[in-house]
Design goal:
alpha/beta; 2 domains; homodimer; about 525 residues; Aldehyde Dehydrogenase, Chain A, domain 1
Chain lengths: ~525, ~525
């Protein structure tokens, strides 16, 4: 597959237009071949029209056929894995080992959604039978199931160039639901996006999909992205990125004549609470775990723990001291883009200047524009509570330890937290029993509570929630990881008194697909 | 229960403040005792604070205890049914028979949600077991279930003074989910709202609920309503009413520092498609059915069919002629309020002046300010397609018949429709088979498709969808009728590697509540 630097419009390519932009190698600062042409307003229009027309047929595809498409995408990614990983390595500076793991995750996600839609229980099919003899009025036959929303725009993330990019979780779940997808790739990995985009295009062609179930439009989020979100044929948006970027899309979508849902995963600071007994038992081990989680992948995870709460004392001091040593001796790393690194440096600078905050460790990153050194800050709860900006995410290998004078002060600090993707508690069983109020509070603040672990590493499974109250995500009722992600792109459609032959197979009386359904209030495979 | 005209703040009453407003009898135009004092900004603050504090305890109530509260509300409504119905009859002009039916529906809804939360499957509890031996990384134990969002504001409807008012579907589903509720009652039935509000207050007290799980704030939507929606402690909004009112709340909620979901059911025109074979078989019978549905309850249903499509010809002419006769001989009726009636008259006037539209029947309503006469309009598809304002809802006993020159023209008109609560098709099996494209299209336009029936009468059951793409509702992924309504007020919360004792009962390994769960991808009661 030869890269051309052009957007993908269904089974075609966009024409070059305007001045092209170079793809960059963040490790060297050098440009990478080829240059990329941004999509035009007319490309946006064409992609939206194609997607809308394709939806008419695609929404009616049997689940098995959509599953076949998802599996074919996975196969083609695997067949081209080396080329994809090498390009991604050049564009993102993520090591090949990590990119191999991410390839596995990406293909695993595609196959998980393929199995999910074949199983069919996610459709929430429901049947309430008629009762002609009911008084005062006969009861009608009412049946419903989840149906796809329509064309979806996916803004891919910077930090998962495969698993949350062109054929990542948002795309997989939207296609699985029966929605056409238009991807606006992140500018940090243009070539990787084109490679994977061509694979999806090929798979769609091989599977006989109507043209337009998939397009890729390169360009700046502010222009191409906003035009896509405002387009009347677009029915939902998936996004992974910054709070400012996500909120701008939320506002644009809410201001449309027909508002549409935006699922923006905007990251969070993922607080870690180290309770007193466990801290006394293994302060240094916890410091090592914290260090590993904070610096993993140069700190570029949405679930990176940017905050640790400890109760002041000898154990807390031992924890901080060990963490200082580890953070201070972390080799600098290359971030995904120079822009992200420059934002990271500004964040570290802001924390360094904050009143009552001690810069406990800082690594000199050298001259490279994308090189980031780890940073550790320590403060007390009073200073933390007095400075709201200390609750802002610093995307990169930095964290802040907050020393609390008492359990009550820790609880007070927790109360002030904004919505989070995750909240983590380290404790003994006694700690947990003594901190019931904290657990309850964190249940209200976060989408996922982690016990005696660290928040980085998001398991792709049925029970996962990777989402949380605003501002962690735009919509805390949703998750972007795990099988529940498919529900974002569907709505219930109800059929009243329809003849059996005219019903979707999933709702036919005989249950020809053998799926799980709720019949007259009873769940079962009937 | 003596009416005092004062808002309800938890277990207390608000103090009188400002100039009171009279409750009105729409049939006579006379004021009803007592006058009502509007809630103040400080009442809003107090209700929100009480609800937030109550949520801490209420969210942890076992489902059975919440179910007990819902059932006690139903019992107390039944015990006071006569007083409630008599007051509602005076305030809304709805006949006692209808109000008796609505009482039954209201109590049925409360009991349905009580059973639902006892059954527990709605929680979507999911368990993915750990696998310590998985490579390259061990698999954690991940469990999740739906948890309540927090305090909910409910704006009650004008047209269901019981079933979609103070203790109606929104309140029942929010309380069932574990969310405190603050109701902003409709001004059309103030006394009914106070009576039912006092019942819920009493039930909450008897059941030992923390003060603040329920409040009622009287006042104008523009002021008290907007203040509630903007309050930072409010986490979701339910609304039934006009498109303008609903959109204003949507915009206010989207502009909050922390945007929150608004579930606004804003009504629609509920198109009815009368296909050619069935129309030839029973034009007059269909006209009678249409007439019954249009004029039921003086046309004051969200699902009132405001539009009928027919293919021109002898059968269509017979249908229109019969409908003319029936509509023209319908006695005038009293609408819920003089304001609604004045909006109805303006709508009828607008249709009467529209180019290419014939006023086929109109009933003189006499002098009463809330008296409405039925109206029938007939036009052709070309005129309909040329005038977008003919797609606007006229709330009341009016409908528009659109004569189409062909099946293609009917399809073209259907394509132009906005989002609808319902779409109805009358046809023979042959009609249905020949109009597959129409059915598919309507699936995308509406939340509920009705076959060979009429859309008024919304069955309260598991499979019901009373919602649809915007502008029928703010959020087509939701329903305000049926058990799925509870999902509006919940979000998934995930527990990773939690000790069994610290998990909610619904997620404990032994399944002590015996609820349906998804375990390692398999649905079942395990």
């Amino acid at each position: 597959m030869k890269l051309q630097g052009l957007s993908i419009l269904g089974q075609h390519r966009a024409k070059p237009s305007g001045k092209p932009t170079a793809a960059m190698n963040p490790a060297t600062g050098a440009a990478l071949e080829p240059d990329y042409f941004w999509a035009t307003g007319s490309d946006v229009e064409q992609a939206a029209q194609l997607a809308d027309r394709a939806f008419v047929e695609f929404r009616r595809w049997p689940a098995q056929r959509r599953a076949g498409l998802l599996r074919r995408i996975a196969e083609l990614i695997e067949a081209n894995a080396t080329a994809i990983q090498e390009r991604a390595n050049l564009e993102t500076a993520l090591p090949l080992g990590r990119l191999q793991g991410e390839t596995g995750r990406t293909c695993g996600q595609l196959r998980l959604f393929a199995s999910l839609i074949e199983d069919g229980w996610w459709l929430d099919a429901r049947i309430d039978h008629a009762d002609a003899n009911r008084k005062p009025l006969p009861k009608p036959d009412v049946r419903s199931l989840l149906a796809p929303l329509g064309p979806v725009v996916v803004f891919s993330s910077s930090n998962f160039p495969l698993a949350f990019s062109v054929a990542g979780g948002d795309t997989a779940s939207a296609l699985a639901a029966g929605c056409p997808v238009i991807v606006k790739p992140h500018q940090g990995h243009l070539g990787t996006s084109e490679l994977v985009g061509l694979i999806v295009q090929q798979a769609a062609g091989e599977c006989g999909a109507p043209e337009g179930i998939f397009s890729v439009l390169f360009g700046p989020g502010r222009e191409i992205g906003t035009a896509l979100v405002k387009h009347p044929l677009i029915k939902a948006v998936g996004f992974t990125g910054s709070r400012a970027g996500g909120r701008a899309l939320m506002d644009a979508a809410a201001a449309r004549p027909e508002p549409i849902p935006v699922y923006a995963e905007m990251g969070s600071i993922n607080p870690v609470f180290l309770l007193s007994n466990v801290l006394q038992q293994k302060a240094e081990e916890l410091a090592a775990g914290m260090h590993g989680s904070v610096t993993l992948g140069v700190g570029q995870f949405c679930t990176n723990p940017g905050l640790a709460f400890v109760e002041s004392g000898a154990a807390a001091a031992a924890f901080s001291k060990k963490l200082e040593t580890l953070m201070g001796s972390t080799p600098p790393g290359t971030m995904l883009t120079a822009d992200l690194c420059s934002a990271y440096r500004a964040g570290v600078e802001k924390f360094s200047r904050a009143a009552g905050v001690r810069r406990a460790a800082s690594v000199d990153a050298g001259a490279g524009k994308a090189q980031a050194g780890a940073a550790l800050f320590v403060t007390d709860a009073a200073a933390f509570l007095g400075n709201h900006s200390l609750m802002e995410e610093v995307f990169g290998p930095s964290t802040l330890v907050v020393e609390c004078a008492s359990r009550e002060q820790m609880l007070a600090a927790a109360r002030r937290l904004e919505g989070q993707l995750t909240a983590t508690i380290h404790g003994t069983p006694e700690d947990l029993a003594a901190n019931g109020e904290l657990v309850e509070l964190l249940t209200q603040k976060a989408g996922r509570l982690v016990f005696n672990g660290f928040p980085t590493g998001v398991e792709v499974c049925h029970a996962m929630t990777h989402g949380g109250p605003y501002p962690a995500t735009s919509d805390g009722r949703s998750t972007s990881v795990g099988t529940r992600a498919i529900e974002r792109f569907a709505r219930p459609v109800c059929y009243q008194n329809f003849p059996d032959a005219a019903l979707p197979d999933e709702l036919k009386e005989a249950n020809p697909l053998g799926i799980w359904r709720l019949v007259d209030g009873k769940p079962g495979c009937h």
